[in-house]
Amino acid sequence: MYNREKTLAVVTGIVCALIFAAGTLLGSYHAIITIGVFAGALATACYLIGDIAIAWAAYIDYQEDGNAMEWGAWAVKYVLSFYLLFSGGCIAYMLFTDGATQTGRTATMKRASEAQQSCLKSATAAAGGKPLTNSAQAACRKIYEAQLGAETAADNETEGKREKWVDAFTGFPLFNYIPGIGGLCGLLLLTFVSKLSKGSAGQSDSHGQSSGNSHGQSNARASQRQTVQRAPFTVTGRQGLGSITNGNGFFLTFSPSGNGQNLRFRERGSNAKHVIWLTQADAENFALLDYQDLAKVAIERRAARHGRNDEMVRKIEQSIV
Q1: Which fold has domain 4-104+164-196?
Q2: What's the pLDDT at 151?
Q3: 173-188: average pLDDT
Q4: Does 185 score more than 90 pLDDT?
Q5: Residue boundaries of the structural domains of the chain
Q6: Which residue among 3, 31, 164, 192 has its CA within the 20 to 30 Å range from the CA of 175?
């Protein structure tokens, strides 16, 4: 089934992966040839830290929808990817121009040497094969120096046209470690946002599912009319909502969130984790169900968004007794 948000997250994640893979290889190569193997190893680790931050942000972008975590993931993913693309372009430009300059200088020396050798051969032939005098050798030496000097000046002029700000940027002492610093800042940002927005993930679940889950709601209403044995129910939240347990250490808990309720799942020895977001009306209806029926509703809605192989779906299925 086509999902616009998920498709965009996957495509941009692939693009970012290509950028950080190429950027890491190019940046590591540049670090090793400029600052040595040992210092280059630390630079490579910094690039990998940046890669981890981008990969984690791309995964969060895929999982979250319309909340602070998604926006934070966007910031980390795109800022670090743009930096790696920009810095990689600067490194490629510098390596290209360095290679062209080195090739030009090598060719200049070769042509100057060939001119000197040609002069020496001509002088030897003119002398009838006799050893050349010092003055003849000096004259050929001057030809070499004159041609080398003229072509070297042209090479210097060509090299002088190179963008100086690129040299200044790539020559910055911490240039090879910026990806690691940026990666750590990105991880810190995502962790900070996660702590501040704990429990708010997936609040948009209901927006795409409220109209498509009428079957689950009708099942819930039918279950309300049946006489079933309820597991212990404790009211802990506002407006008469709370927690429902299966009597074996598993709980489904309603928690106020915005203009609705978060439904959370808690298993023995762990904290409650977000399952789905419900409108206040749906939450009030579902709070009347027993654990088994409420779990089925949670599974149906969660699976509609995340698939049957979702870890949370499997855990709730295993808790049904």
Answers
A1: Four Helix Bundle (Hemerythrin (Met), subunit A) (1.20.120)
A2: 66
A3: 90
A4: yes
A5: 4-104+164-196, 203-319
A6: 192
